[in-house]
Amino acid sequence: MIRKEALESVKANVENANLVKHMLATEAIMRSLARRLGEDEEEWGLTGLLHDIDVELTAGDMSTHSKLGADLARELGASEAMAHAILCHNEAHGFPMETKLDKALFCVDPLTGLITAAALVRPDKKLAGVEANSVKKRFKEKGFAAGANREHIAKCSEIGLELDEFIELGLEAMKGIAPQLGL
Ligand SMILES: [Fe+2]
After folding, report:
1. Ligand 1 centre distance from Cα of residue 158 (Å)
2. How many other CB atoms are found less than 10 A from the CB of residue 131?
3. What is the per-residue pLDDT across 38-63, written as a single tens digit (0 to 9) for each?
4. Could you tell me which of 109, 133, 110 has the C-alpha nearest to residue 44?
5. 48 CA to middle of ligand 1, Å?
6. Contact in structure between 108 and 28 (CB atoms under 8 Å)
7. Nearest to residue 73, comparing CAs of 23, 131, 147?
8. Which of 37, 43, 46, 114 is 20 to 30 A away from residue 100, measured at CA?
C-alpha cells in the first residue's frame, strides 16, 4: 500500500478536516509506537491513517463503523492484520483484540483527542508549549476532553508501555507533525 494513495482515499471519503487531522495524528503516534516496539512502522502508521476512513460514510452508525472501514482498507491493499485492527477498534462489535497492532490502535485513538484538547486550551492553541506533565494532569481530570476515554488510553499497559511513557511518546509524535494538524 502506498501512503499517498491511502491519504488521498481518506480525504476523498472524509470531508471534515478535523477528522482527517485526527487520522494523521493517529498515524504519527502509531509510527512512533512501532519504532519504539520494533514493529513494522509502515503497517502500523497506515493502520492509524485509515482507521476512521468510513466515519462519515457510516454517519455515526456504530453497527457498521469500522466494518466498512476494514473493507475499504482491504480494497486499498491493507493486510488482514491491518483490517482486523481497524475492525476491532470499534468495540461495539465485540470483536476481541488479539494482536499488538489491535491493542495499539485502540489506545492511541483516544490519546489524540486528549493531546489535541491540551493544545486547544492554551492561549496560542499550539502543541509546541504543551508539556507532558500537563497532559498527564489532564488525564486525571475526568471533565477535561471527556470523549477521550481514559480506560482505553490506559490499555497501553497491554502493549508494554507505562501511561506516562505513552503520553510522552504521543505528545512528541504529534508535535512532529504540528503544522499538518494546525496545532
Ligand atoms: Fe479514531
Report:
1. 19
2. 11
3. 999 999 999 999 999 999 999 989 99
4. 109
5. 8
6. no
7. 23
8. 114
